[in-house]
Specification:
alpha/beta, SDR family NAD(P)-dependent oxidoreductase, oxidoreductase, 9 strands, NAD(P)-bd_dom_sf, Rossmann fold
């Protein structure tokens, strides 16, 4: 069954930049009203401006500053959505917000580790808990949770620890897959889908440095790559990190949003985003026992470069 977004209401976390911004723009262009949250009011204001450039008459775009890792803020946002849109229902929930950081559980900063995990996992849980009552009131509802390729492969290479992000993204994948049965039994008009993007051209790397306490993980990783991070302050390092991550991505944020929305329309529950995501999924399934050996990573890098 194909889903029509026109006339619907979508809620998007992390709408200030990246995939969240592009999801908002494409949904609004199809006549879907959007409520978004982010920790940056300025970034959301720019997303809203871009959305309204192509918004059909009557389409609403609303912004709310909230930290998805704090349940009370998410519950308060849900109340604001009810009042702002004068509604008792929404139709689409995109739990998209995320940050990087907290690389090493053994030697890293605990606050950074927990900040990453709480945003990436509990941000999803809080989003579902806050907006499930509104989804329940819709004729049909759709929950779309962003995991990652690191939700099925917990590594970015044999020289870099990546525990908090990978653990959270595995948890998002498991939570979403378990929701499929839970919803079928208790709310069969609501579906759940898990999104597993590969390398997407977003600002997550630099944004994470502003949100997460400390930047040691990023500095260490870039230093290993030969960059002189000692001469840069945090703002300069964030700009370099953002540019490098965004501009080297094989899939843009806009392309990723299109893939996600097309999959939601088609009723898919398992959404791999990017050729790199599909290839890595096949490689891990073909060799699960060897997936964390350095030789596997070398093959993966060679495949991406081919």
């Amino acid at each position: 069954m194909t889903i029509d977004f026109a006339g619907k209401i979508a809620v998007i976390t992390g709408g200030g930049t990246g995939m969240g911004r592009e999801l908002a723009r494409q949904l609004v262009a199809e006549g879907c009203s959007v409520a978004m949250c982010d920790v940056s009011a300025d970034n959301m204001a720019e997303t809203r401006r871009l959305c309204l450039e192509s918004a059909p008459q009557g389409t609403q775009v609303d912004c709310y500053v909230a930290d998805v890792s704090i349940e009370d803020q998410m519950m308060a946002w849900a109340d604001v959505v009810r009042k702002t849109f004068d509604t008792d229902r929404i139709h689409l929930l995109f739990n998209n917000a995320g940050v990087a950081g907290g690389g090493s559980f053994v030697a890293g900063d605990r606050a950074s580790w927990e900040r990453t995990f709480n945003i990436c996992f509990y941000g999803v849980v809080h989003g579902v808990r806050a907006f499930l009552p509104l989804l329940m009131n819709a004729e049909r509802g759709h929950i779309v949770n962003t995991s990652s390729v690191n939700g099925f492969y917990a590594s970015i290479g044999p020289e870099t620890s990546h525990t908090a992000y990978a653990a959270a993204k595995f948890a998002v994948k498991g939570f979403t897959e378990s929701l499929i049965t839970d919803l079928r039994l208790n709310a069969p008009h609501i579906s759940a889908a898990v999104v597993m993007p590969g390398h997407i051209g977003t600002e997550i790397a630099g944004n994470s440095m502003a949100i997460n306490p400390g930047t040691r993980d990023f500095r260490t990783m870039l230093s290993r790559q030969g960059l002189d991070t000692a001469s840069m302050d945090d703002a300069q390092l964030a700009m370099v990190v953002n540019a490098g991550f965004r501009d080297s991505a094989p899939t843009s944020a806009a392309q990723a949003a299109t893939i996600i929305l097309d999959a939601v329309k088609a009723g898919q529950w398992r959404i791999l985003v990017g050729d790199d995501a599909r290839i890595l999924d096949e490689m891990v399934r073909a060799d699960p026992e060897g997936a964390y050996a350095p030789a596997f990573h070398e093959r993966w890098v060679a495949t991406r470069s081919a």
